[in-house]
């Protein structure tokens, strides 16, 4: 993700800032940049969210489709992620330039959502063994300002919170064939439970210190970062996936420290995200009068 | 009349051919009950066969058998990056390609996806170990061929690639070793075989979900951890985790894998040492042969000098040139 060219002097400046616990934009090592989040702004999708984390801009849309569940997991629905790196974000994404990055993000998300404890796939079940919902989570990266993993996962979680599945009633016909009737009323819908949905936190190692929410410049300076997926269950933080990225290595203790840092940050982030999503919904109400934001 | 005798579908060494072991959740429960579960945790590598330099067509190659998992790794010397846009400023790039042999696995539909996933994870694991600052604007291609998959695929591939890199003469910071551990229904499986790994993926731990009435039931953790480490300075090159684990369990599995990695490291060192000795012996033999040949030629020259050319030139062969005689 290193597209920013920095001179040695600039790198040293950032490194010293991190050592002093005072980063270029005035944050400490454990602070996030300001976030803007709005949900339900794409009228064609079942759920959507747009997240702007300083310069990182993400748009997520959730589409729904009816599918047949896997025979081994008859009660589970399906999720599919797709990440599109728009060429608007950086010129490097032109053509197939962003496909590696997109692949990495998709893998990280798939890995985090894989466990049924982190996302309750049973809520997507319509008729066990016969019909289930399949959610397509399409993520569009509009601008790259560092820390894509975190931004993408937060936006995906917000979009899932916003997702409204139409209420479906099934009637049993002859010979075990079922017929699905989808409710006509667009406001008659079910929502997804997002309490345990994981979020990713990138803990970035610069010099001897670990920090969260690296900006694009800081990512260039870092030797290695650890992506931790945190899922909250019974008020405890669990790991639902983690990996290292960035081409460096870490000592075992550093790794465990950054894991714990990620867990505690993720816990805070998760509670704040859920609080803000609820607040937004209360303020706007179930019917959104008009779309605000850049998609007017 | 043709008589059909039912024969057991078995291989020569008595192993039966793998079939679809379970189709429904109930089959699966039964299957798990019958599965051999380890009583205690033994943090040791499986029986391993490892050999460096198995191919003559490439500079660096290695073949590894880790239990039943069989993997071959090929490393060619770095070559220049053609696309200017793919160049990085201060590092050479590393690309890994993982391919399944057509007979490596029963499930063919998911192969392209798994290949892609393994390639990306392998690249991430090998990046820290290669001195990439030594080949700017060059790219190093590492290819892995999976001959048989019986679990621990990624860790075996990492081990094998580590050896192939050394064999190719690529500078590395350290020897890299990797291993896998997983936990499923409170059983810790060290070096899980393909069946256990498949259980984790396919059934996706549906049993672990508490029924809605019973939220107080403790969470059943499940998950898989792959650790690649470089032990000289206790560095971790990659730690890939999936599933659902508490931090305490994570640390426990981490320590198991690190112990296995230490054992593996011994083995890899031994293999490489042996390989160097072999190479040295070969060199000595070649040198001896060359010396012998030199000696023979020297003798001939010596003889020619002392006896003149008469020995080589047979007078009967020389005919008078008709033109010069005129």
TrEMBL record, chain A:
GO biological process, one term: U1 snRNA 3'-end processing
Any Pfam family: RNase_PH_C
Protein name: Ribosomal RNA-processing protein 42
Keywords recorded for this protein, A-Z: Cytoplasm, Exosome
Gene field: Dwil\GK21414
Record lineage: Eukaryota, Metazoa, Ecdysozoa, Arthropoda, Hexapoda
Gene3D superfamilies the record matches: GHMP Kinase, N-terminal domain
GO cellular component terms listed in the entry, alphabetical order: cytoplasmic exosome (RNase complex); nuclear exosome (RNase complex); nucleolus
Domain annotation Exoribonuclease phosphorolytic: ranges: 32-166, 197-264
Molecular functions (GO terms): mRNA 3'-UTR AU-rich region binding
Organism: Drosophila willistoni
Automatic annotation (TrEMBL), chain B:
Domain of life: Eukaryota
Signal peptide: none
Boundaries of every Exoribonuclease phosphorolytic domain copy: 46-170
GO biological process, one term: rRNA catabolic process
Gene3D superfamilies to which the protein is assigned, alphabetical: GHMP Kinase, N-terminal domain
One Gene Ontology MF term: RNA binding
Keywords, ordered alphabetically: Cytoplasm, Exosome, Nucleus, RNA-binding, rRNA processing
Cell location: Cytoplasm; Nucleus
Gene Ontology cellular component terms for the protein in this record: cytoplasmic exosome (RNase complex); nuclear exosome (RNase complex); nucleolus
Sequence similarity: Belongs to the RNase PH family.
Stored PANTHER family: EXOSOME COMPLEX COMPONENT, EXOSOME COMPLEX COMPONENT MTR3
Protein name: Exoribonuclease phosphorolytic domain-containing protein
